[in-house]
């Protein structure tokens, strides 16, 4: 059964990846918005943020921009999955002798690959803007692990949204609150500069420990408890989103 699931998922992943390669504008579009935000905050608002100059602010800002990139990218996952349902390809797959869950996992894995490409593009632009890090290989691998876990978490939320949406517009719009969430965290400015109620929310939502952990890894500082809190948040949300998404999927194909 496991071999069959892996084989079916691989075949369907190839199908989804061909859609990506034939339409690279989705990856470019995903990267453009966070890059534009990074340029705007660094070169327009950066002077008002006293964090040690442009290069220092790029280093401070990049972790949050990476999370915004992921939140922006998973909206396409929702749209692709929703369109598969609308075109009847779901029914066609279900008439074949394949593992049912492989249909969803193919979209999830495609999201991981597509978002990884967008993240690399954003990091390259950040390097051109002056971002530098003395982080070693293990630190970069830890950053990659956290970003992968965050992508997986948001992607399963996206799957649930796609299975529940009534229109393509509704399927794509669900990502907007997720894109906005980093702005209410330590991603753009230190939380201590915020009004007390906003600071309290920012300090107790999942994006802040994730941003802090990635920032500490980039700057070769101790991550403290931030990494474990971030992982706990992501794993907890991932488990709930996965359970709800699989429940919605079983009801839809029943």
UniProtKB/TrEMBL annotation:
Coiled-coil region(s): none
Keyword Membrane appears in the UniProt entry: yes
Transmembrane annotation, as ranges: 27-48, 60-82, 103-131, 137-163, 170-189, 227-249
Pfam family, any one: ABC2_membrane
Domain ABC transmembrane type-2: 25-252
UniProt key word Membrane: yes
Membrane topology field: Multi-pass membrane protein
Cell compartment(s), UniProt: Cell membrane; Membrane
Source species, domain of life: Bacteria
Major place of residence: membrane
Alphabetical keyword list: Antibiotic resistance, Cell membrane, Membrane, Transmembrane, Transmembrane helix, Transport
Similarity annotation: Belongs to the ABC-2 integral membrane protein family.
Protein name per its UniProtKB record: Transport permease protein
Organism encoding this protein: Streptomyces albipurpureus
């Amino acid at each position: 059964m496991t071999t069959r699931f892996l084989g079916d998922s691989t075949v369907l992943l190839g199908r989804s990846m061909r859609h990506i390669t034939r339409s690279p504008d989705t990856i470019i579009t995903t990267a453009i918005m966070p890059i534009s935000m990074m340029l705007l905050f660094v070169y327009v608002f950066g002077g008002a943020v006293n964090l040690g100059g442009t290069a220092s602010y790029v280093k401070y800002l990049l972790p949050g921009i990476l999370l915004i990139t992921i939140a922006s990218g998973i909206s396409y996952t929702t749209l692709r999955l929703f369109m598969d349902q609308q075109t009847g390809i779901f029914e066609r797959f279900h008439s074949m002798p394949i593992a049912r869950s492989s249909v969803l996992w193919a979209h999830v894995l495609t999201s991981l690959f597509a978002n990884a490409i967008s993240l690399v593009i954003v990091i390259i632009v950040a390097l051109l803007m002056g971002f530098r890090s003395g982080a070693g290989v293990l630190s970069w691998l830890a950053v990659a692990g956290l970003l992968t876990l965050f992508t997986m978490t948001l992607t399963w939320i996206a799957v649930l949204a796609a299975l529940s949406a009534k229109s393509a517009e509704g399927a794509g719009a669900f990502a907007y609150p997720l894109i906005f969430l980093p702005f209410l965290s330590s991603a753009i400015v230190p939380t201590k500069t915020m009004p007390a109620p906003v600071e309290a929310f920012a300090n107790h939502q999942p994006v802040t420990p994730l941003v802090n952990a990635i920032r500490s890894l980039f700057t070769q500082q101790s991550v403290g408890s931030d990494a474990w809190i971030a992982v706990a948040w992501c794993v907890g949300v991932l488990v709930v989103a996965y359970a709800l998404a699989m429940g919605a999927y079983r009801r839809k194909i029943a």
